[in-house]
Amino acid sequence: MIMNIFLTTALLAAPPEAETPSSPSSVEEQRAGIVKKGLTFLRDKGQDANGAISPRVGSGVTSLAITAGLRNGLKLNDPLIARGLEYLESKIQTDGGIYTSDRLRNYETCVAIMALAEANRVAGDGRYDTALKNAERFVRGLQIGAGDGIDKADPHFGGVGYSGKERPDLSNTAFLIEALHAVDTPSNDVALQRALLFVSRCQNLEGEGNDTQFADKVNDGGFYYVIPTEKVDPSTSERYTPNGGLRSYGSMTYAGFKSLVYSGLTKDDPRAKAALKWISQHYSVSKNPGQGLAGLFYYYNTLGSALEASGLDVITTPDGEQTWRADLVQQLAQSQHPDGSWVNENQQWFENDPRLCTAFALLSLAHAKGESK
């Protein structure tokens, strides 16, 4: 269920670097064409005989590809989906998690929940109800502050990391929020509200939920990846500003904004307003603002999912209005390889893997279909 609480707000951004198709019908025709090529690549060249896609990095890419395929109209009997689901089912653990590595058990289970929830929707028969219930219980138990005695005063309260209760980060917490949203968790749910506190503490915004030392050092409304608990030395990393603040960047700001939407905030909330202002000032489909090409395809997915969830079709900036769907489709059409794949020239976060990048690209293109309802 997509929440359209931001539909009346017009926002997007700076003109794209490439000319976009002239009409909604031509945008959709172009989108459908590159989606078909991308799905063919995953089916014919990206999937192992056992249904796995890029298993060297765990089961996560398989889950992302299944979700992308189903959201782009594939049926459950399509080989890409059927084989992928069989592989995913083989990774269901006795603790309810769906993962191949303890180190990635939150991330892998959350994206598996999204895939199985999508399969349930298409099937219409509740075939994955039990697996989803057990997986949901599992990821809820990984959240910091869930039955571990940690209270709201701890800056990590409400967050979750790759494997659970180690150092939490905004990306994994956003995946938890999206997984709970995928199984129709209401926005006032205790786990979502715990997560909202952590998400708010990852926003560069003074006085609106961020009570950490970093709240006022940048104060631009964007989001960052982790909340440091050690003393910050700005000379040690580009992620710090000279005054010891944490730089906002694109993929985390869209992940944070989407998390605000799924946690029930409206367009009038100061956190949402500040995030949208940052988005309007830094909009791009050619780079991940603040990171360049690093994590570009992850960024495309967070951009698409956040803007679709918010109900925004157009965002207005000082440079004018932009329709993000047309921009994204045009950019991905230009960067698609002849074999139907996408790959990032920047290798950070495994984006030198065309299977991962193609799954992210197809997810973003699913969000770019049509207009917000």
What is the CATH-assigned architecture? Answer: Alpha/alpha barrel
Number of strands: 2
Instruction: Spell the H/E element sequence.
Output: HHHHHHHHHHEEHH
What is the overall pLDDT average?
92
Terminal residue distance: 11 Å
Q: Tell me the strand order in the biggest sheet.
A: 1-2
Major sheet size, sense and barrel closure: 2 strands, antiparallel
| Beta-strand content | under 5%
| Backbone CA Rg | 19 Å
**Poorly predicted sequence stretches spanning 5 or more consecutive residues:** 1-5, 7-20
Organism: Symmachiella macrocystis
Protein name: Squalene cyclase C-terminal domain-containing protein
Task: Describe this protein with a few key phrases.
disordered N terminus, two-stranded antiparallel ribbon, globular, single chain, mainly alpha, Glycosyltransferase, 373 residues
What does this structure look like?
It is built from 12 helices and 2 strands; from the N terminus they run ααααααααααββαα. It is mainly α and 373 residues long. The chain has one domain: Glycosyltransferase (Alpha/alpha barrel), CATH 1.50.10.20. Strands 1-2 form a two-stranded antiparallel sheet. α1 runs antiparallel to α12, α2 runs parallel beside α12 and α8 runs antiparallel to α9. The termini are close together. It comes from Symmachiella macrocystis. This is Squalene cyclase C-terminal domain-containing protein. InterPro entries: Terpenoid_cyclase/PrenylTrfase.
